[in-house]
Design a protein that fits this description.
The mean pLDDT is 88. A hairpin with a 5-residue loop joins strand 1 and strand 2. This protein starts with a helix and ends in a 9-residue tail after the last helix. The protein contains five helices and two strands, in the order αααββαα. The protein is mainly α and 201 residues long.
Length: 201
């Protein structure tokens, strides 16, 4: 059973990939720093001006239609990168190599240096996984929230507004992580895959 869960969660390995020389000069900027920072004003705007949270006009529910487009886009992009024929695509990334800790059958962990293709496949695989999870979560919570509004007020009482802000932020963080990572993927697809060496300039 555990092996099945591990396989289904394989796209999450993207977050374990390390690249860069320090926290603020590494992949962590795209994974966490920018999404965490952007989510703060986005949460404020969503709380202040949205109509509900998970409804079609709500701050989170409004992303549902976008996710309907992005899920198949990410899967198509993953398939395209996996089969794309380009010299240098299966070479390690230049500069600071992207590495992923992998566990061998005998139990030891080693740092595996990723190729450009492997890195971008992990990127779009994670985006496909994240967008699908967000889509299902928003869809489910939209249905639940329509019938549990009174119960939520009874549970949180005077802290209802704080709970609302917390829920918005909890969803804003992965949404903006998805958006920032998408822009990173677009950068790789439009720039780095076309210009891999100085001879390509």
């Amino acid at each position: 059973m555990i092996w099945a869960v591990r396989q289904l969660l394989t796209p999450m390995r993207y977050l374990r990939i390390r690249q860069g020389i320090s926290l603020f000069k590494s992949k962590a900027v795209y994974d966490w720093a920018l999404p965490i920072i952007i989510s703060v004003p986005a949460t404020y705007i969503g709380y202040k001006y949205s109509d509900g949270i998970f409804s079609e006009k709500g701050v989170i529910g409004g992303f549902q239609k976008l996710l309907e487009i992005l899920v198949p886009f990410y899967i198509a992009a993953l398939a395209a990168v996996a089969t794309f024929a380009r010299d240098g695509l299966d070479d390690p990334m230049k500069g600071h190599a992207a590495t992923l800790s992998v566990r061998h059958a005998h139990g030891d962990w080693i740092e595996h240096v990723l190729t450009r293709r492997q890195f971008i496949c992990y990127l779009f695989g994670y985006l496909a996984f994240l967008s699908l999870v967000l889509f299902v979560a928003i869809l489910f919570l939209n249905l639940v929230s329509q019938k549990s509004g009174v119960a939520a007020h009874e549970i949180f009482g005077e802290h209802m507004q704080a709970a609302k802000i917390a829920v918005i932020y909890i969803f804003m963080l992965p949404i903006w992580q998805m958006i920032v990572t998408t822009l990173l993927g677009v950068y790789f697809m439009s720039e780095r895959l076309m210009v891999m060496t100085e001879s390509d300039l």
